[in-house]
Request: fold
Amino acid sequence: MEQWQNELSGALRTAEELAAGGWIDPEQTAAYRRVVSRYGLLLPRYYADLIDKDDPNCPIRLQALPRLQEVEEGWGDEDPLKDEQHKPAPHVTHRYPERLLLHLTPNCSMYCRYCFRKTLLNKDKQTLFGGSVNAALEYVRTQPQVREVILSGGDPLMLSDEQLFAVLERLAEIDSVVRVRIHTRVPVTLPSRVTAGLATSLSATRLSTVVVTHYNHPREVTERSAAACGRLLSAGAWLFNQSVLLKGVNDDPHTLAALSDALMSMRNVPYYLHHPDPARGTRHFWLSFQQGAAIYEVLRTLLPGYLVPRYVVDDVERPYKSDVGEFLAEASPSFWKH
Reply:
């Protein structure tokens, strides 16, 4: 068993473990158990050690530890991006003409509390992951306009090196596919997963490799995390970062500016700042578009243009991501006004 697998096997998974470790009030264990039973808990010790236990508003805590509000809310959608409506084959979401998503695994290195797929990743709701991956790859072969395949999940880097290479090798056999993009939070939450073997797998085919990391706060950029990004760069991958604007975590322009600086120190381009999707159980992270636009306006004054990420929203009515300014300039769907 590799180091990352040992670390994952020792991750925190129960409300009782959180109480024993001092992360939650032991008297509220039963209430937190209810949250964990609905949305799960998986917290690697590496990421847990970044939490300031004395600060109830620690931005690492807010992303990693369950909150009672998760099960008190009726707000939001179980499938806010309508993945199920764009599923032409098992494991596939095909929303955009020249690129598509392959959902390779429901497994993650950590269960992020703001995840827009937190309901779909429940064991009884894993409809995105049923069926044969071979059928998904055959579907890609029948779509010659698809040039980029996006590996998603869950987190695709939860596959073994051998499993990941097998998928990449199959994709490389499809002439129309020139690029693979991997969306992952592994360098942030479980950097030991980025091994020399993984780097070899990523560089072993003709495909160009883009890795999109998910850093949300500068405190997530640690020495170990930066080393993981360095190994990805050494494998020839391009690194881009996609953050989510989260109430209480990074809804401050100076925090976002510090994140961009930290990312650039790792040669990781701050590409997207996503407005949070209206996912069930995440309303406490949500803020209005007007609040987000005001934060972004200040952020633009703090950084050179190449360090300012695009502030975007996933509008399921459009075949591309929309800049929030453009979105606000037009009539918004009534749901977003809530």
